[in-house]
């Protein structure tokens, strides 16, 4: 089935959106490096790699369906944060935006009867659920331990975050 023009545009925008997510996570990583919180920085760097991987998946799929890749200008990522908690709140809001965008592509694919795109997006529907849940759990932990006001707790959570493979 020939890929519809609207879907082409949406999938290309998603290639860009995933790179923008990587860009945002990289800025968060730099923020943590600046505060000597290396565990958090490492966790963010793993996110950067994941997002670049997501972008590549959309890129490969779009090319496979004979679409064209067009890169957009990137928005400047948010780089200043008032607390560790704020970083993850911004991350969650960003992931929710990505989820909404992917769900929108899914809807368009469904309306057009493009089962291939739907099938391709299934991975991302699940992935976004996981991403949001993971970030929510980290926010819960940050709140519970009150790491923004307690140095020992912050130190310990930083260590735990750094254990991410
Ligand atoms: Fe992503």
UniProtKB/TrEMBL annotation:
GO function terms (MF aspect): ferric iron binding; ferrous iron binding; ferroxidase activity; identical protein binding
Enzyme Commission (EC) number: 1.16.3.2
Reaction catalysed by this enzyme: 4 Fe(2+) + O2 + 6 H2O = 4 iron(III) oxide-hydroxide + 12 H(+)
Tagged with keyword Cytoplasm: yes
Domain Ferritin-like diiron: 1-146
Keyword Oxidoreductase attached: yes
Broadest EC class assigned to this enzyme: oxidoreductase
Annotated positions binding Fe cation: 18, 51, 54, 95, 128
GO BP term, pick one: intracellular iron ion homeostasis
Chief subcellular location: cytoplasm
Annotated Gene Ontology cellular component terms: cytosol
Subcellular location: Cytoplasm
InterPro entries (alphabetical): Ferritin, Ferritin-like, Ferritin-like_diiron, Ferritin-like_SF, Ferritin_DPS_dom, Ferritin_prok
PROSITE patterns reported in the protein's UniProt record: FERRITIN_LIKE
Keywords: Cytoplasm, Iron, Iron storage, Metal-binding, Oxidoreductase
Pfam families found in the cross-reference section: Ferritin
Family of this protein: Belongs to the ferritin family. Prokaryotic subfamily.
Function according to Swiss-Prot or TrEMBL: Iron-storage protein.
UniProt protein name: Ferritin
Organism: Leptotrichia rugosa
